[in-house]
Amino acid sequence: MIHSAPKMNPAGDLASHFSAAEVVEHRGETTLIVTREDLYATMKALRDEHQFQQLIEIAGCDFPEHAERFEVNYHLLSLTKNARVRVKVSTNEKTPVPSMTSLWPVANWLEREVWDLYGVMFEGHPDHRRILTDYGFSGHPFRKDFPLTGYVELRWSEEQKRVVYEPVKLQQDFRTFDFESPWEGPDYNIYNLPGDEKAEEQT
């Protein structure tokens, strides 16, 4: 009987190299939880000393109940080790996170996306502006407290010959119903409709 060797996590030995970080192992994945002050040095060491060459993604999370409501997740890939690692850092609305654009140029657009959708600022970013929403957009749509309808709506104004922004107006035309559920509806007489062949059969 052949026993296969247990799968080893190539990124699992990082705990001994990053004593200042909290290392979490879950289902074969390694996550480093660091402070804002240690973020840049940690990311640089992962790239230069531990061969995590590629920055795959930067994703934001919003936890309004936390003291620092925003969490920024960095996903790194090592081509030589065939391994991935996640780095997490927390921040709030007013405290910026160090930009990674000097380490990975791809961080430019990724950080702009996190800023646009969550409002997380990145210190040292060369082009800190929105990337997905319009320049006149109000708020950050991926925050948990952002209304689903948004704050403004836009339309084409034939009078002004341009797109105009207006406060959101919810139409109520189709919000009144004459029954509480599909099974408790009014007694429609479907057999007395003009032109219905069934009308003759029921008379």
Question: Can you give a write-up of this model?
Answer:
This protein has 203 residues and is of the alpha/beta class. The chain has a single domain, classed as 2-Layer Sandwich (Beta Polymerase, domain 2), CATH 3.30.460. Helices cover 15% and strands 26% of the residues. The protein is built from 3 helices and 9 strands. The protein has helices at 36-48, 107-118, 198-202; strands at residues 22-26, 29-33, 54-62, 70-78, 83-91, 97-98, 122-123, 152-157, 162-167. The strands form 3 sheets. The protein has a 5-stranded mixed β-sheet with strand order 1-2-5-4-3. It has a two-stranded parallel sheet with strand order 6-7. Mean pLDDT is 83; it is low at 1-8.
Key terms for this structure?
single chain, 203 residues, alpha/beta, Beta Polymerase, domain 2, five-stranded mixed sheet, two-stranded parallel ribbon, 26% strand, disordered N terminus
Structural class: alpha/beta
Q: What is the first-to-last residue Cα distance?
A: 80 Å
Number of domains: 1
> What is the β-strand count?
9
CATH architecture: 2-Layer Sandwich
- C-alpha-based Rg, rounded: 27 Å
Biggest beta sheet attributes: 5 strands, mixed
The name of the CATH superfamily reads: NADH:ubiquinone oxidoreductase Nqo5 subunit
- What CATH calls the topology is Beta Polymerase, domain 2
Name of the CATH first level? Alpha Beta
Compact description:
By secondary structure, the chain is an alpha/beta fold. It has three helices and nine strands, in the order ββαββββαβββα.
Please specify the SSE layout and strand pairing.
Layout: E1 22-26, E2 29-33, H1 36-48, E3 54-62, E4 70-78, E5 83-91, E6 97-98, H2 107-118, E7 122-123, E8 152-157, E9 162-167, H3 198-202
Parallel strand pairs: 2-5, 6-7
Antiparallel strand pairs: 1-2, 3-4, 4-5, 8-9
